[in-house]
Design brief:
One of its GO terms (molecular function) is plus-end-directed microtubule motor activity. One of its GO terms (biological process) is vesicle transport along microtubule. This is Kinesin-like protein. It comes from Oryzias latipes (Japanese rice fish). Pfam families: Kinesin (PF00225). Helix 1 packs across helix 3. The radius of gyration is 19 Å and the shape is globular. Helix content is 30%, strand content 22%. The longest helix is centred in the C-terminal third of the chain and has 26 residues. It has a 6-stranded mixed sheet with strand order 9-4-12-13-1-14, with helices on both faces. The protein is α+β, with helices and mostly antiparallel strands and 323 residues long. The relative contact order is 0.20. The protein has 7 helices and 14 strands. The chain binds adenosine-5'-diphosphate and magnesium ion. Adenosine-5'-diphosphate binds next to helix 2 and strand 11.
Length: 323
């Protein structure tokens, strides 16, 4: 089920009503309605962990215009951790509390594959051989993957923190008219979580992929005064966001009761191709829409809310990834 994080309301004279699974106000820290990062993790992050431990794939993506709080929601601010660090921390705390430790073993690998201009990079590779323009391929059973993408075995949360610190140094940021450090790439952080069960009669392995995605700003390129190369980037960013919207619409038309599946255009953008097995199918998908309180952003806010509305129609089918 889609879940949407909505930060504020629009001005009364422009009121339109939308309904989502969750809505969160974070305009005023003093207000009783203020929602903490912890609460967002309790509502959404714990569902992701539950899905992974139950053997499902999961995907959380933050959608909204630049400056509306996507990175704050996903990564957090100093001293105010967002969903990604909390999910990683929660994963290891669940592993260490697991009563199944005797009969199951866990393996956690992380990757980070930002997409910029329809090209995939490797954010976490330490020694730079080729770290950008990596190819996406699809394995008949294991699904889409990025060729040559480095994967990192992590044994505890501080291993993850260390990798994230190294990854931050590699991140490309450039300024646009809207925000001086705006992320124009889709940041993808992927966790591959493997559970092996040592049943003498039937040993089995379950792999769950968790994709945590901080999408590029959803504003139209022309709204930011972009020209030339920037405008082209805007076009590509938009292409993957438009395709993501189309994928969401197609998935929304599917029903577990229908025999024939609708055509879902996953391969029309690198972003949707990579997220294929975490959108629809057997996965837990959470969309977080972030919006701005400013009147001047009314148009973008409305388009974000409409985009989020489409995600509500997706009904995923429960099938565990067991071998
Ligand atoms: P985006 O990634 O969508 O461009 P950011 O997450 O960078 O936007 O948010 C812009 C600024 O607003 C940052 O300084 C961020 O810390 C702050 N911010 C965003 N959302 C919130 C929130 N819900 N509560 C407190 N501060 C926020
Ligand atoms: Mg950002």
């Amino acid at each position: 089920m889609a879940s949407v994080r909505v930060a504020v309301r629009v001005a009364p004279e422009n009121t339109k009503t939308f309904t989502y699974d969750f809505s969160y106000d974070s305009t005023d820290r003093q207000s009783s309605a203020f929602t903490s990062q912890e609460k967002v993790f309790e509502d959404l992050g714990s569902d992701v962990l539950k899905a992974a431990f139950d053997g499902y794939n999961a995907c959380v993506f933050a959608y909204g215009q630049t400056g509306s709080g996507k990175s704050y929601t996903m990564m957090g601010a100093p001293g105010d951790a967002g969903l990604i660090p909390r999910i990683c921390e929660g994963l290891f705390s669940r592993i260490s509390n697991s009563s199944r430790c005797d009969e199951a073993s866990f393996r956690t690998e992380v990757r980070s594959e930002p997409i910029y201009n329809e090209r995939v990079r490797d954010l976490l590779r330490r020694k730079s051989t080729q770290t950008y323009n990596l190819r996406v391929r699809e394995h008949p059973k294991d699904g889409p993957y990025v060729e040559d993408l480095s994967k990192h075995l992590v044994l505890n949360y501080s291993d993850v923190e260390e990798l994230m610190e190294a990854g931050n140094i590699n991140r490309t940021t450039a300024s646009t008219g809207m925000n001086d450090v705006s992320s124009r790439s889709h940041a993808i952080f992927t966790i591959n979580f493997t559970q092996a069960k040592f049943d003498a009669e039937m040993p089995s392995e379950t792999i769950s992929k968790i994709h945590l995605v901080d999408l590029a700003g959803s504003e139209r390129a022309d709204a930011t005064g972009a020209t030339g190369v920037r405008l082209k980037e805007g076009g590509n960013i938009n292409k993957s966001l438009v395709t993501l919207g189309n994928v969401i619409s197609a998935l929304g038309q599917e029903s577990p009761l229908k025999k024939k599946s609708a055509f879902v255009p996953y391969r029309d953008s690198v972003l949707t191709w990579l997220l294929k097995d975490s959108l629809g199918g057997n996965s837990k998908t959470i969309m977080i829409a972030t919006i701005s309180p400013a009147d001047v952003n009314y148009g973008e806010t409305l388009s974000t809310l409409r985009y989020a509305n489409r995600a509500k129609n997706i009904i995923n089918k429960p099938t565990v990834n067991e071998d």
